[in-house]
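Predict the assembly for these two chains.
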Amino acid sequence: MNNERLEQQIRFISEIDKLKTINRRSYILGGERLENTAEHSWHILVLAMVLAEYTNESIDLLRVIEMLAVHDLVEIDAGDTFCYDEQGNLSKAEREMQAAERIFGLLPDDQHIELFTLWREFEERSTAESKFANAMDRTMPLLHNYYAQGRPWREHDIHSNQVHVRAAPIRDGSQTLWEYARTVIEDAVAKGYLSGAEGV
Amino acid sequence: MNNERLEQQIRFISEIDKLKTINRRSYILGGERLENTAEHSWHILVLAMVLAEYTNESIDLLRVIEMLAVHDLVEIDAGDTFCYDEQGNLSKAEREMQAAERIFGLLPDDQHIELFTLWREFEERSTAESKFANAMDRTMPLLHNYYAQGRPWREHDIHSNQVHVRAAPIRDGSQTLWEYARTVIEDAVAKGYLSGAEGV
């Protein structure tokens, strides 16, 4: 085989297998183990397929799905930074930028640029596609933690105001899903899955 | 929340979390555990994104990716039938049809039909999109088993002619990738990862 381009693409595909070993803080719904980032990526892109009708603005669904498929690849090098870890989040941007350069850099130049651009677009949350993609990425953990009866929230002593702030970007992607998310948070507090807002 | 449609969609999303518990016969590349079908689905749809340029016919990539994202959901009920298990494959079609009816049937009617149609299209391998999607689904295990130095092949006493037959549909989706697959199989035999064709 003398096809350097294809060999580069296959090396990238082989490298990203490592995303299956990156554990998140959430559990799979049976609760028997933590969820990894590869299966999470699959789950949120199916979420986008199924909920696309609720987007605030019209979107290119292929772009949303491609964005969701690759947006967490940086965790192969940078790890999964817990969203409520203030210290970890200070260095997150720099660690993830270096990771994006290395991992997307395994691809031929044109695809390197294409996927790096998708990743940055997701992070910047300025286009209709990235707003909706981010809404999916925020909706899923909320549902997941709710169905796990709040286990990750309780394990990490998270309060409802933190969950509310974390979920707020859902509104930029979908007003309908934001209203739904608020009822889920309220219901989680009512059921004791989540502590009420601190100091309230 | 009084939105039965959205509630149905969320129930579907919650149900398909179970795909993360369905193990395949292949290992993740580090070799420490079997791969599950959810993370496999993610991996092959990224493969499709990266290798789309090699398709024999022009394709609607969104349709290919959506197909790959949902084509294995039937395994939640029907399990992963090992491709070289002749007995299991006799009952596979009927088990998977029932599973598709139940799982896609959790969705509102329009989406039930849409995703069921995608699943059947994948199985029938008659459109350009399904031929390419199937090529992705056959390329990935070949690469995976090759990078695992043939461990699943050796564990199940698989010969190169079986792998060759299993990989053959790659040709219908991509002549380029089929040629590449053949060199991978030859190289696997040369390296002792895979037994040569039985009786040859």
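Chain A touches chain B through 46 residues (CB under 8 Å). The longest helix of chain A spans residues 128-147.
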